[in-house]
Amino acid sequence: MRLLRPGTGLSIGFALLSAWFLWQSFGLSPVASSVPRVVLILTLVLLAVEALKSGIHVSGRADAALPDGGDASGPVPSNENAGPVGRCLAWIVLLPVALGVLGLLIGSTVYCLLFLRWRSHEPWAFSLATSCGLGLLLYLLYAVVFRAAPYAGLLGL
């Protein structure tokens, strides 16, 4: 019986490292700490959502019997989102390009929409709602909490 999924230790380590970076950002000036706080808070939220999603997925698999009479006592690996290395690198490069050209608010919203729809294969309604929610959250963080203008990008959006 496996208690943790493969890679869980790495995820926990990454979450602890992100939490430590977030704690360290409170020692910076308010202007200098705004971007690290936004990035790290969103990173921690994403890690929590992924942990919950994979936990629910594993518990759903563990309770079901396999068609051939076996049991699903461990996680079943899925190749649904596995792709060539070039495609993964393209998504990694697309984020800083989108942020640099379109700015923080629009770039992150567009990237979130594209990633959720075409990489994660989420429905359009969920992708739009999540990306608009992210854009609204970033706007509220900068306009209300930090009282600073976010990076506008090369296009000045």
UniProtKB/TrEMBL annotation:
Domain of life where this protein originates: Bacteria
DUF1468 domain span: 11-147
Q: What Pfam family does this protein match (any one)? A: TctB
Annotated transmembrane regions: 7-23, 88-118, 124-145
- Write out the entry's keywords from A to Z: Membrane, Transmembrane, Transmembrane helix
Protein name according to UniProt: Tripartite tricarboxylate transporter TctB family protein
